[in-house]
Design a protein that fits this description.
The chain is mainly β. The protein is 5% helix and 35% strand. The chain is built from 1 helix and 10 strands; from the N terminus they run βββαβββββββ. The strands form 2 sheets. The protein has a 7-stranded mixed sheet with strand order 6-7-8-9-4-3-10. The longest helix is centred in the N-terminal third of the chain and has 7 residues.
């Protein structure tokens, strides 16, 4: 996405939190146990973003974070519970959950990560995407 394009918009289910995003780098399916527990699903789908390119435009006071040991902050709406972001300990947003965008973000998952922890009750689809037992190499696709 370039600066010539309008920012992507999104928010939580109840509408209290709204955000804009300018720079999506790549997206992934994460099959780690933490994502399974956090979402109640077999995987989480998120976009990596260029640091500093996501702005909360409404409802910042509604944001809550859970900080798992050894992981990024998991940021969600305190009113409705919608999962929104992954952020650093300093609060810099570096991941946005794809389901939080209002419209098609124009990016597709490029990789399955942490497949060593995939839910035994759900098969990972044979979609041709690279699979990594743990985290993919730094920098993201292409691998």
């Amino acid at each position: 996405m370039t600066s010539e394009n309008p920012p992507l918009t999104g928010g939580c289910a109840c509408g209290l939190v709204r955000f804009e995003a300018d720079q999506l780098l790549w997206a992934s399916f994460c099959h780690c146990r933490r994502c399974q527990q956090r979402t109640g699903a077999q995987a989480s789908v998120q976009a990596r973003v260029e640091p500093g390119t996501v702005r909360v435009t409404a409802g910042e006071e509604q944001l809550r974070a859970w900080v798992p040991e050894g992981g990024l902050q998991k940021v969600f709406c305190g009113a409705c519970g919608s999962a929104l972001f992954g952020s650093t300990a300093e609060g810099e947003i570096i991941r946005v959950r794809l389901g939080a965008f209002d419209d098609d973000p124009g990016i597709r998952p490029a990789v399955h990560q942490f497949v060593a922890y995939a839910a035994p009750w759900a098969d990972i689809p044979d979609d041709g995407l690279p699979r990594f037992e743990e985290q993919p190499p730094a920098g993201g696709p292409p691998f």
